[in-house]
Fold:
Amino acid sequence: MFAVIKTGGKQYRVEAGDVIVVEKLPVDENGAVTFDEVLMVGDKVGAPLVEGATVTGEVMKQARDKKIIVFKKKRRQNYRRKQGHRQYISVVRITDIAVA
Structure:
């Protein structure tokens, strides 16, 4: 069975045993996390959420993503700005999908 969850402003299609990379969650490594915003479970579609459905997982790692470069330039104006950014991420293993 699969579910569609919403976290960090994004939606993820998950099944039990999947490993997903999401924006940083306020949970320590090896801690449990519960996703309450479940948009779909199997063929049940929520309006907007599925009542009583939860997805649980285990935070495997708290890390930072690869660096991206933000480069701005205006031609013929001698205007150049270079900035880097590394997003904080959490690696989560989905353990269970429950529907009440």
